[in-house]
Amino acid sequence: MHTAHGETALATMNFQPLLDEINDEIRPLLGQRGTVASYIPALARVPAAQFGIALRTCQGEEAQAGDAATPFSIQSVSKLFTLTLAMRHMGDTLWERIGREPSGNPFNSLVQLESEHGQPRNPFINAGAIAVADRLLSRGDAKAELLALMESLCGEPVAFDAEVAASEAATGYRNYALANFMKSFGKLDNDVQAVLDMYFHQCALRMSCVQLARAAGFLCRDGAHPRRGEAAITTERHARRINALMLTCGTYDAAGDVAFSIGLPCKSGVGGGIVAVVPDRLTLCVWSPALDATGNSLLGMKALELFVAKTGLSIF
Ligand code: GLN
């Protein structure tokens, strides 16, 4: 796919000055536009004027700038990891309950779910991730399984933020509506409360850009563990499919725009984090809490655009 020339250029690319440069360009824009996710009270209190960027290459080199070591609520970025576990357990039978088409609708929309009889369009909108959480619960202790996966990927302990999970449990009316609606169509096997408890906890994982860039490393390495010598996280086929879903569905109703302006598989969350994958090269995580109208980090997207413009890296 890439020319020998491209490989030489990238192999010699020193990413640290590049991330410093992006950080310098983004910092003056902090706090100017966008709003933090105010519908989750615990997230509404997060100071907007923060920005971090971190990357990890397939060879294990790392670079970071800005607030890259500050932990934040990963929110929907967690859907990458629960999907990975569900695909590992269930293979193609997972798709009997969940579609693979972009929604073209906001991540928490109810409309499509009604016309499609409780079958979520894809695993990254809330309804789809709730259905994935249901599948994982049917297999056992889903929270413990997710924590174990994240700790293995990061090489250090990772925790749920109990305050964020409780805040969403107290106010997540839309997610209750989505889950009850799916339950009424017979699309959830487990108790709605138990499924949402898992979903709210996965969204409440607290991680930094550095940790997320590491954790997503298997997605640029055809499923291989980010650290050499560890068992593969998923198969090459599954890793490709997760990347495909990230490109088409990972940023919700902005997915077309993101493919157009950035051209990388991305997964965003309303905590302001975005993970992007350059297949066979590197994973990147950006974070800035202020969001645009589609629920994606405004300056995170801007930083990804700068990264792609400066490196020429894109899947196209
Ligand atoms: N926990 C959030 C919610 O359910 C996740 C949404 C997101 O990050 N896009 O609304």
Overview of the molecule:
- With 316 residues, the protein is an alpha+beta fold.
- It has a single domain, classed as Beta-lactamase, CATH 3.40.710.10.
- The chain contains 14 helices and 8 strands.
- It has helices at 4-11, 15-26, 41-44, 78-90, 111-115, 126-137, 142-154, 162-171, 173-184, 192-203, 209-215, 236-249, 255-261, 298-311, and strands at residues 52-57, 62-66, 72-73, 159-160, 205-207, 266-268, 273-278, 282-287.
- Strands 2-1-8-7-6 form a 5-stranded antiparallel beta sheet. Strands 3-5-4 form a 3-stranded antiparallel beta sheet.
- The longest helix has 14 residues, at 236-249.
- It is globular.
- The structure holds glutamine.
- InterPro entries: Beta-lactam/transpept-like (IPR012338), Glutaminase (IPR015868).
- This is Glutaminase.
- It comes from Variovorax defluvii.
- Substrate binds at residues 76, 126, 168, 175, 199, 252, 270.
- It is an enzyme of class 3 (hydrolase).
Which key phrases capture this entry?
binds glutamine, 5-stranded antiparallel beta sheet, alpha+beta, 8 strands, single chain, Beta-lactamase, 3-stranded antiparallel beta sheet, disordered N terminus, 316 residues, EC 3.5.1.2, 14 helices, globular
